[in-house]
Amino acid sequence: MIRPIQSHYPDEWSHCYGCGRLNEKGYHIQSVQGEAGITVCEFRPEPWHTALPGYVYGGLLASVIDCHATGTAAAHAHRLEEEHERHPYPRFVTASLTIDFLKPTPLAPFRVEGRILEHQGRRIVVACTVGGGAHLLKTVEARITVVRIPDSGWPATASLG
After folding, report:
1. Is the pTM here over 0.85, yes or no?
2. Which of 2, 49, 146, 152 is most buried (most C-beta within 10 Å)?
3. pLDDT tens digits, 102-124
């Protein structure tokens, strides 16, 4: 069984409302490494995640995309660092999230796929798509810029710029 990317985060970084395994009330978003460099997240919305009858609330979609993108970046950085014997999965925070809602996403299980577009220093740009409904029709496209949290933690004076 493939362990979700988020299960590799150390406990001190596992409280996120979206993907934190230690957040009792969170979404517990889980992403896995797929084929050809694509990451995948399957999410089953609940009836209270409704925007309009039969369709998912856009804020939920943004949350799932956000956590999936940071997980995609963490897996990418970890893979690069494994060669240098650095094993912990690094954590990332979102600096920019641009979403295009192409059509309403049905209130049914949906799939998010992510892939790395750019990697420069601490910044990584991830592209995500959401597919929903019986045929997983593409309903959302997003571009997310994430920034790596330093291993020593995020100082209060730090900037994402």
Report:
1. yes
2. 146
3. 999 999 999 999 999 999 999 99
